[in-house]
Design brief:
- The chain is an alpha/beta fold and about 240 residues long.
- It folds into two domains: about 10-75, Hypothetical PUA domain-like, domain 1 (Ribosomal Protein L25, Chain P), CATH 2.40.240; about 85-230, Alpha/beta knot (3-Layer(aba) Sandwich).
- About 30% of the residues lie in helices and about 20% in strands.
- It contains six helices and eleven strands.
- It has helices at about 30-40, 90-105, 125-145, 160, 195, 215-230; strands at about 15-20, 45-50, 55-60, 65-70, 75, 85, 110-115, 150-155, 165-175, 185, 205.
- The strands form two sheets. A six-stranded parallel sheet has the order 8-7-6-10-9-11. Strands 1, 2, 3, 4 and 5 form a five-stranded mixed sheet that branches.
- The radius of gyration is 21 Å and the shape is globular.
- The two termini are about 35 Å apart.
Length: about 240
Amino acid sequence: MTISPPCATLAGTRGPIVYVEDLSRPAVADDDRHHLERVLRLRSGDAVMLCDGRGSWRQAAFGPALSWTSDEQCDARAESQLSLSVALPKGDRGDWLIQKVTEIGIDRIVVMETDHSVVRWEKAKASRQLDRLSRITRSASAQSRRAWLPQLSGPLGVDVAAEALGSCLAVPGGGPISRVYRNVMIGPEGGWSTAEAGRGLPTVGLGPQVLRVETAAVVAVTLLMAMRSGMVLPPASAAENTFGG
C-alpha cells in the first residue's frame, strides 16, 4: 500500500511570512521590510514566505529584489466558514481578543455595538479602528502561519450581525454548541438587553462559570474550530459510552 505524502500547506513551511496584495508582483511594505531586516535580521538569500492572504503563497529569497524559489501553491479554504460576532471590551483586552481568535483560526470577525456596549466607535474614527485591528489580525496570522486572513467588519448592530447563517447568542445556561452554529455572538459584560435576548435566536452556553468577554470569545472559537477540524467528535451513544462495562 502506497501512502501519499501530505499536501504542503503554509503552516508546514519555514521562514517568516509576509502578506502582499499580488503574488505576481509582490511589493513588501516598508514596515514589513523593516521588521524583516531590523527585527528578524534576515540577510540576502534567506527564505521568506509571501502570501496573498487569500490562500495562495510562494517561497522567495529575501533581498533588495525578491527572487522566487518555489512554485505558487494554494491552501484549500474550509467549506464551512465560522464567524465570531462580539462586543469588544475596552483597550488591550479587545486587542488581545482579536489576536487570539485569529491565531485559533476564526474565518470572520464582526465587531458589534450592542445596547449595553461600553466600546462605541465614532463614525469618523471607525475606519481607522478597523485598520488598527486589521494590523493585529495580519500579525497574528503571520505568527500562526495562516494562508487565509480573517475577514474583519463592523461596527454592526445585533440585528445585522444575526443575519449570518447559523447565528446563536452566547448566554449563561445556554445549550451546547453544535456544528449547526457558524456565528457565535458574544455580548458585553453588561449582558444582552431584553430586546436583544428576545430576538428568538438559539442560545449556547460556554461553561458553568461567568466569563469575561475575551475569555468567552476564545472558548467559543476554540469549540467551533475543534468541531470543524474533527478534534472534537459528537457525543457517543449511551451504548458506546459504557467502556465495555
